[in-house]
Amino acid sequence: MAAAALLVGTALVVVWQNAHVAVLWDLSYTLDNSYRIALGQIPYRDFPFAHPPLTFLVQAAIIKLSGRVFWHHVAYCASVGGTGTFLTWRILRRILAGTKNRKSIALLLSLPLVPLGIYSVFPHPFYDPDCSLAILFSLVLLLHIDRKPSGMVLPIIAGVSFVLPLFVKQNTGLAFLSAASLSIIVLIVWQLMRREPVRPFLITLLSAGTALAIAIVLIHRIAGLGNYWQWTIRFAAERRTPARGEMLGIYADKMILVWLAFIVAGIVLFWLNRNRNKLLLILTATLVSVPFIWPAIYLLRDSDSSERADRLINIWPVLLIVCFISALVNIRRRKGISQLLPFVVIAAIHGCFMSQQLWGSTYAIWPLLMILVAMTLADLATSTREVNWLPLAFTTAIAFSLTIAGAFYVRSHERLSYANLDDGELQRATLPQLKGLSTRGDWIPNFEELVRYSDTNIPPDAGILLLPGEDAFYYATGRKPQFPVLLFDHTVNPYSPEQIRQICRERNITWLIVKQDLQNEEDAVDAEKDRITTALEDDFEQVESLRNYDIYRRIDPNAKKDSDDDDDDDKP
User: Which residue among 21, 338, 427, 475 is the one 20 to 30 A from 220 at the CA level?
Assistant: First the structure.
């Protein structure tokens, strides 16, 4: 019953988010590229693509099987979000095996994932949440492979699961695959030294290697391994990888020392309290809990949503440090895969940070943080058997603080602050293929006006370029994309304005559609749109102006030549 409530609660949050939030920039990238894949275009070979394929293949399959209907993708996100919370709950119960109040602690630690689930913050189909789901699935299998040393099927599936995250999101997946494989190798050596069974670990490692080899062969045959490497590794690293200083900068905040001081003070007080005085134990629990209840307390102190979000996000480096130290200190107390699992999770988290650092990357990996907390609580329970209420009290403080702060974080849309989601009345899509799409402002009705105009005035097979690609135009119209890039962002567009002009000529792009006001409020996006428009202005002339879109048609080269000749004849 508890598991069902967590699953349904998380799914309902995702549905609620989609009922009033549409982040058009990211949504168009997923839907349009998935649609072009559904049409048979091959990423990496037919068009540059900076991301691994699995998320887009899944969405393409949904389109192929059920048509272009937006709410189908909402249903996918809701089911995956709920499943992510359910898998986390199962992992927590397994980690806390042998801990008093295990069921209550697992339930409490899962509670924050209702507002902070993998699809709760950003509710549209995307690779970050899908990668988290793949990692959670793999962790479930990992925690069971050493329970039945004679089993064969489970280790094989576990090994295959190591590889899946790599083909959902490369930085997180590569960190997870590397850390998990290294952990298995270390365990094999350790088990051999102790003359204990290594069969399940060997099978898992061999299965992972085989699955990776098969995936590489398939990629090479379908898209070309060189193409895949160029776009998902070299190009993506060039455009997205942060400097080392930025990566380490998450640990440079001086407040981290303050929070660590509270935790250390609580640990020292517990160690000195040999008689286990109840008042001192309560003080211990309070001191250790301060960093985690502060985000909830801060809600009463400041109404600024950005400041509130900062307090919540800044929990991450504190917890990562504490959990890492706890994992090192208690490594000999654990058995099997549990000895090294904390380091695998920490590696995956830092791999995720490589794309958008602390602020941008944490929105879909809260389950991993809860898993680390559970491992630390399991260690705490082992050390405090004579006061077995302490882990439960500590868990209660963490759970309710994160749930309350997380709910405000999601409601404020602070993680989505790059998009204008708050101005105007709530508008809902009326086109059948966009059913379920809703957001504030005139973005949706203006876009539907464009769709109707193009259906009436632009030939179905015409080559069209949309700038900057903020809307899921091809998904909504059912047209075939003819330009290699659909979203003109520095991280996914490899072409300069001059190259874009040349490609338009080579591919006979005859229509140009420029969106005027953007939901995405980043200045760089507007600036790039203006640069490309300027580069194309000699080749196109404006023929229509809609409420938020200017429509251009390619100038007939012959007509342009005749006009130039007439100008020459008029000269004295």
Answer: 475
How many C-alpha atoms does 242 have within 13 Å on its Cβ side?
Answer: 19
What stretch of H or E contains 42? none
In this structure, what DSSP letter does residue 419 have?
A: B
* Domain parsing of the chain, residue ranges: 2-416, 426-570
The single residue listed with the structure tokens 């048509």 is 67
Listed in sequence order, the DSSP H helices in 111-235 are 113-116, 127-142, 153-163, 170-193, 199-222, 225-229
Give dist(CA 501, CA 498) in Å, integer.
5
- Residue 92, CB-side half-sphere exposure with 13 Å CA sphere: 29
Coil, strand or helix: which one is 167?
A: helix
3-state secondary structure of 277: coil
Smallest CA-to-CA distance from 469 within 441, 500, 439, 438 is with 500
Rounded to whole angstroms, the Cα distance separating 516 from 532 reads 13
Residue 7: which of 80, 109, 105 has the closest Cα? 80
Sign of CA dihedral 564, 566, 570, 572: positive
Distance CA 228, CA 351 (A): 20
Question: Residues with Cβ < 8 Å from 273, sequence gap 6 or more?
Answer: 280, 281, 284
Residue pointed to by tokens 């130039």: 564
| Residues 6 or more apart in contact with residue 144 via CB below 8 angstroms | 94, 154, 158
Contact between 118 and 80 (Cβ < 8 Å): yes
Q: Which two tokens stand for residue 103?
A: 């069921």
Peptide bond just before 468 cis, omega within 30 deg? yes
Tell me the C-alpha distance between 221 and 216, whole Å.
9
Give the torsion through C-alpha atoms of 437, 438, 443, 447, to 10 deg. Answer: 30
Task: From 366, 357, 367, 394, select the one nearest 378 (Cα to Cα).
Answer: 394
In this structure, are residues 397 and 414 in contact, taking their beta carbons and an 8 Å threshold?
no
As given in the structure block, the two tokens for residue 85 are: 């919370």
Q: Across the chain, which distance is largest between two alpha carbons, in Å?
A: 108
**What is the strand order of the sheet 463-467 is part of?**
463-467, 509-515, 549-554, 540-545
In angstroms, rounded to a whole number, what is the distance separating the alpha carbons of residues 377 and 203? 31
The angle that helices 390-412 and 366-383 make with each other, rounded to 10 degrees, is: 170
What local confidence, expressed as pLDDT, does residue 124 receive?
A: 98
Q: Which residues of the chain have pLDDT under 70?
A: 149, 357-360, 383-387, 558-572
Cα–Cα distance measured from residue 22 to residue 444, given in angstroms and rounded to the nearest whole number: 9
